[in-house]
Amino acid sequence: MPPYPNPSAAVRTASVVNEEIRTLWQRSGGLLSPDDETEYQRLLVEWAAVSGTDVRPAA
């Protein structure tokens, strides 16, 4: 799975992506596996892109 969303794919709303993030955390019981962590990072980038939020840590 690529680390970044596919630009040619349909754009989902921030609320849809947020719900998927919540589901991932709930399904994992609050402890992400390495595969879940990869998926979480991908979803976080997608969410930031559609919500206009910068998810990079402050320097």
- Estimated share of beta-strand residues: under 5%
Low-pLDDT stretches: none
H/E element sequence = HH
In total, the number of strands is: 0
Q: Terminal Cα separation, in Å?
A: 29 Å
Mean pLDDT: 85
SSE arrangement:
Elements: H1 14-28, H2 34-51
Helix pairs in contact: 1-2
Characterization of the model:
By secondary structure, this protein is an all-alpha fold. It has a domain at about 15-50. Helices cover about 55% and strands about 0% of the residues. The protein has two helices and no strands. The longest helix has 18 residues, at about 35-50. It is globular.
List keywords for this structure.
56% helix; mainly alpha; 59 residues; 0% strand
